[in-house]
Amino acid sequence: MSPTNPTDPTTDTSPDPGRSGVPPGTTPDPDAAGQLHPDLARRKGITRTRTGALWTGLVVGVLILVLLLVFILQNLDSITLELFGWDFSLPLGVALLFAAIAGAIVIAFAGGVRILQLRHAANRQRALTTQP
């Protein structure tokens, strides 16, 4: 059996799964990607899965929808909107929801155009670097 130095965590050969070579009272440093070492994460019971991320996103989405529903139900005063000569009468909360959806569509369109520009530039660069 090899000798152990109690002050040097790298020489620890104890079978205790809770010990990770990190001095007590301190937290281990994550790697460059911000993730804990996989062995350390497993020992601490930390697991990250796509299903867990999906579940978290679903719960956050439901909470946002509940807040939106409360907002709409508290803002039922009818307003009149005029757009290109048409008059619409609808609740204020619904009108603001439509405005937010329209803004999201504009942002999604602008983002999609930028993605296509970057993809085109990357394909052009790849074609230039692979030519003899």
UniProtKB/TrEMBL annotation:
The keyword Cell membrane applies. The chain crosses the membrane at residues 52-73, 93-116. One of its GO terms (cellular component) is plasma membrane. Residues 74-126 form the Lipopolysaccharide assembly protein A domain. Keywords: Cell membrane, Membrane, Transmembrane, Transmembrane helix. Pfam families: LapA_dom. The keyword Ligase does not apply. This is Uncharacterized integral membrane protein. It comes from Rhodococcus koreensis. Residues 1-43 are annotated as: Disordered. Residues 1-17 have a biased composition (Low complexity).
